[in-house]
Amino acid sequence: MSEPFYITTAISYPNGRPHIGHAYEAIAADAIARFRRMQGRDVFFLTGTDEHGLKMAQTARERGIEPAALADEMSSYFREMDEKLNISFDRFIRTTEPAHHKASQAIWQAMVDSGDIYLGRYEGWYSVRDEAYYAEDELVTAETGEKLSPQGTEVQWTVEESWFFRLSAYQDRLLAYYAANPDFIRPESRRNEVLRFVEGGLADLSISRTSFDWGVKVPGSPDHVMYVWVDALTNYLTGIGYPDDGGRFGRFWPADVHIIGKDIIRFHAVYWPAFLMSAGLALPKQVFGHGFLLHRGEKMSKSLGNVVDPNDLVAAFGVDQLRYFLLREVTFGQDGSYSAEAIVAKVNADLANSFGNLAQRTLSFIAKNCDGKLIDGYEATDGDRRLLGEVRDACSVQFARHMEALELSAAIETWLRAVFACNQYIDAQAPWTLRKTDPERMSAVLAVLYEAIGNLAIAIQPIIPGSADRLLDLMGVPRDERTYEAIRSGEWYRKVASSDFRLAAPTPIFPKLELPAEA
Ligand code: ME8
């Protein structure tokens, strides 16, 4: 059986509709999941919605509906967005599912059993927006004199009986774990941020609430619901069957990587490992905090009116166009900016003009001038071998190395350099001239290009799955040959060429984009 690979996104708060930041995270995680599947790994990809907590309860109250009704409605928009973006999740989890309540109570009980939970009284600051507690010295003062969270959100003084988690007892164990596992938190900037925070000392964490009841009930303490982050983080266990399904849970835990945004790194890299240590469970291998997506360099906010619905971007530019832009433009781990102009410019330059044009002119030439027939054997020149070697190396070895390191934009750049090399080759070889002067050489050049384009399409599948599939279907590349292994072995071209496959006249896979009028 192949090696498991368990990847998760954060689960989103469905207190509003999904925005481009949610889309970005889903797309990045999907590219990694697809890449690992192509490597032959047995992938489990989890995503979903985080439906408890005060923020959900308050939004529902403002809208005059029950929190459950709000969650049902909004969660469906997240799922629809995922489907539209071609996100290949294996499970879409909702934290209101009974199985999740059971899992959260199980991990709670395990923490009780290790003596890490005690009853106390919480007096301090809470931000509903962030669903987070803050210490006095973490707060910032606004120009108006109002106290705000370090994220700039409103905080309220809260006094409540509460169950506490003995987080303070985990400082040394966490620091030792970070030191022994330098790749646990990535990128480096996030790791440093977490180290500084933990080195500064950890206070015990309030992990239950009594002032509202929209949450998972604390076992044996019916007046308390769990602090939303305790149940939210546990989704990563529920998703693979904890506590019952020994089979799947045993196979996929610990997770290979949690893909999350930089604003929630503390929950994933401090609280979560401490909860798991307390419950006697293994720790995830990696937590990756990606950057934030800005609109024209500005933070998205309802008041600025620049919160963009991902569905509109898909309608305007296309799914793969959006996926490509986000993964190529934003260095994974850093903040990035987007605008309609930037999407149009990047997609036209890279997909329409470089890759699309390469495929279109080669394939339509073969369809038109060779009856769609490919030649099986030919005499390769040094230049032919050089190009094929370069493309093969870029598409299998280098692309894969970058993807494994979660350097998504670097992987795409490598691929694009190979596309450029093909375009130089086609211009230098000029098959349209050879057609008259040396038809045999023309056929060889087309065979080289066909294999190169096929390899480029195979490699880029995780990034632009729909378009790559269409191109590979058109080119007759067998489904089971669409892997990095197939690129390396170089067998697929001969199989296609020696079969009775005939290439049909292609329509462009990447039509040139126009800037929408209202942009
Ligand atoms: O934080 N750019 O939910 P959420 C990029 N429920 N990513 C962004 C972003 C932006 N502009 N805005 C948000 C939560 N995100 C919790 C998670 S996990 C056990 C619980 C990212 O809906 C954000 O960083 O506020 C997070 O990873 C994800 O979107 C969901 O954010």
UniProtKB/TrEMBL annotation:
It comes from the Bacteria. GO terms for molecular function: ATP binding; methionine-tRNA ligase activity. GO terms for biological process: methionyl-tRNA aminoacylation. A motif ('HIGH' region) lies at residues 12-22. Keywords: Aminoacyl-tRNA synthetase, ATP-binding, Cytoplasm, Ligase, Nucleotide-binding, Protein biosynthesis. Residues 6-363 form the Methionyl/Leucyl tRNA synthetase domain. The keyword Ribosomal protein does not apply. It is found in: Cytoplasm. Its EC number is 6.1.1.10. Transmembrane segments: none annotated. A motif ('KMSKS' region) lies at residues 299-303. One of its GO terms (cellular component) is cytoplasm. Is required not only for elongation of protein synthesis but also for the initiation of all mRNA translation through initiator tRNA(fMet) aminoacylation. Monomer. This is Methionine--tRNA ligase. It comes from Allosphingosinicella ginsenosidimutans. The gene is metG.
